[in-house]
Amino acid sequence: MIAVSAETSSAVTLGKKSRTMHRIWRIAAHDRSYVKDLSVRLKITPMVAQVLVARGHHQPESAEMYLAKKLATLHDPETLPGVKEAADRIVQALKSGRRITIYGDYDVDGVTSTSLLWHCLQLSGAKVDYYIPSRLEEGYGLNCDAIRQLHSDDPERLLVTVDCGICSVVEAALAKELGLELIVTDHHTFGETLPDAAVLVHPRLPGVEKPYAFGELCGVGVAFKLAWAICARMGDGKKATPQMREFLLSAVGLAAIGTIADVVPLVDENRVIVHFGLASLLDRSNPGLKELLRISKVIEKGTLQAEDIAFAVGPRINAAGRLGQARLAVELLTTSDKERAVALAAYLDGLNKDRQTVERRILKQARELVEEHPDWGNHRALVLSHPEWHPGVIGIVATRVAEHFQRPTIMIAMGGVSGFAQGSGRSFAGFNLHAGLTACHDLLESYGGHHAAAGLKIRPEGIDAFRLAFVKYVSENHVALPGSAEMAIDAEVQLSDITIRSVTELEKLGPFGAANPRPVFVASNVELAAPPKKMGEGERHLSIFVRQFGQKMRGVAFGKGEWADEIASHNGPISICFQPTINRFQGRESVEFHLLDWHPEHTAAAVGV
C-alpha cells in the first residue's frame, strides 16, 4: 500500500504561483473473496470486479442488476407529481385546437426539453410553438413582459414551461390574473412559496401523497416523462401508438443530451436514459441532430460516450444560448430541412469558437483579479466581478475558477443592459450554492438554481456587501478542505492489468458522469520511459510514456502542460493516478491513460477506506 504523506495536502495559494498541489488518494478497501466471486460468477476481469465492489456491489445479484441496464426499469411517468393533470390538460388543449406554447430555458437542458416536447406535440397534431427568452436581455426563466406579450397575442393559448418556472411566483400570479393557463414543469430548487399555476410538475414537489421514486431528473427528463404520458393518452390511454412509440425511442436521445449537459447524477433512471439515448442518437437522429453530431466530429466514432456529448455536442448547443441566440439551437433540433440543418450547425459551431475566445479572455482576467487582491487568499469563497465580462460565458469560467482555486465561486458581469449585474456561480466540494444565495437574498435582486450551480441578479453597487456576506456564510457553514483535496480511487493496479479486454469491460459500468465517474486507478513504482513532453496549442497538455515492470504505456494529461518540467526534474519512480482509455486509430486499438494526478514515489499520498 502506498504510504500517507501530509505534505501533499497543502492548499492552493491565491495570488501566488505555487507548485502542483498533489491530492490525497483515498483508495477503496476490497475484500478479495468478494472480488474473486464476482469475477468468476459474472465472467468479468478482477479489475472490473474490484470497481464494482468499491462502488458498493458486493453481491453478484446487485452487480448483475447494475450491469444490465433496461428501459423497463424507468419509473412510470404517471407517478411523477403533476404529470397526470398536466398531460390531461395538454391533450384537451390539443384536441380543442388551442395554441400550445412551450416556454424553455436557453441552456442545453432547456433547449432539448423544448425540442423534445415540441416534437411530441407536433406529431400529435397540435398547434404548437415555443418561446426562448434572451439570456442577455430577459435573463433566466419566466418574465412578466413575455407573459403579457404572449397573452396579448393569443389569450386562449396554453403556456407550458420546461426547465424553468418553479420559482416564478410573481410571474405565475400575473398569468393567473390575465387568465393565461400555465403549466410549470421544472426540476430546480424551489423557494418557500410555490407558483400558483394550473399545474406544477416537479420530481421533488412537496406535499404530495407519494413522492416520486427518483428526485434527480433534469428538465429534459421531466419533459420526457410528460411526453410519455401524452403519447399514452394519444394512444389507448396506456400504450402509445407505434408512431409515437418510435418517437419516444428517438426522444430518449434528446433526453440524454440534456441529462449529460446539466450534470445531474448519472444513477438510477438518469443512467438508463443516457445509456439508451446515446445509442438512439446514432440510429434515430433527425436531420438537425445528425448534422450537429457530424460537425462535432463524434458521429464517425461508431459509438458515443457521455463525454462526447459533454465536451463536443453540448457546448455547441450551449453557445447559442450563451451568446443570445438559443432559438437557433431549438430550430436546429426541430428542423426537417437538411440544408437548413447544415447552415444552422455551421453557425452554432462558429458561435462555439467565439465563445471559447471570450472564455479564455475572461479566465485570464479572473486570475488577474485574484492576484490583485491578496486579502482574498483567506476567503473560503470567491466573488469576482468585471465590467467587460459577457454574462453568457461567466458560468463556464466560474467552473474553472472554482476548480483551480478549490472554493465556491461566483462571477458577476457588471455591464447588464437592464442596469443590473448578472452573476453565475459554481459550487466546490459539495457546498450548497443555492442555500448560500438564499442566506444572502436580501442583497440580491433575484436568484435561482440548485446546490451545484446558480444564477443571480444584483445591483452593481451592492456587490462588495454581497461578497462579504456570501464569504461569511461559506466560512460558517461549509468545510471545503481537506476533503476537497482527496481523490476517490477504485483500486491500486499494475499497468499489466490494463488490457483491451479489461478497459472494454469497464465501459459496462457507464455511462459515466456525475455520481458515477469513470473508474480511477493508482499504479506505484512507475518509471519514465521517455522525457515527458508538452503538446497542443500553447503547450497546454502533457504527453508521458511510463514503464512498470517492463510494461510500457502512454498517457495524456489535459491542461497540465506545466507537469512536464516538474516530472522531468524528479529523479526516481513516481506513482500515478489515472483513468484508462482505448485509443482507436486507423483500425488499430491500444490502451492509454488519462493522467489525473501524480506523486513522487517517496511522498505518495494515499489511504485505504
The coarse overall form would be globular
Mean pLDDT: 91
Total discrete domains:
3
Order of adjacent strands in the largest pleated sheet: 3-2-4-5-6
Largest sheet: 5 strands, parallel
Discrete helix count: 19
CATH architecture of the largest domain: Alpha-Beta Complex
CATH hierarchy, class of the largest domain: Alpha Beta
Low-confidence stretches are 1-18
Task: Describe the overall structure.
This protein is an alpha/beta fold and 609 residues long. It has 3 domains: 6-31 and 490-608, OB fold (Dihydrolipoamide Acetyltransferase, E2P) (Beta Barrel); 73-252, inorganic pyrophosphatase (n-terminal core), CATH 3.90.1640; 373-482, Diaminopimelate Epimerase, Chain A, domain 1 (Roll). 41% of the residues lie in helices and 19% in strands. The chain is built from 19 helices and 20 strands. The chain has helices at 32-42, 46-54, 60-67, 83-95, 108-123, 144-153, 169-178, 219-234, 242-261, 268-283, 287-295, 306-322, 326-334, 338-372, 394-405, 433-439, 463-477, 500-506, 563-569; strands at 24-27, 99-103, 127-131, 158-162, 181-185, 199-201, 382-386, 409-413, 421-426, 446-449, 453-458, 486-489, 491-492, 521-528, 533-535, 541-548, 551-557, 574-585, 588-600, 606-608. A 5-stranded parallel sheet has the order 3-2-4-5-6, with helices on both faces. Strand 13 (491-492), helix 18 and strand 14 (521-528) form a beta-alpha-beta unit. It is globular and about 75 Å long. It starts with 23 loop residues before the first strand and ends with a strand.
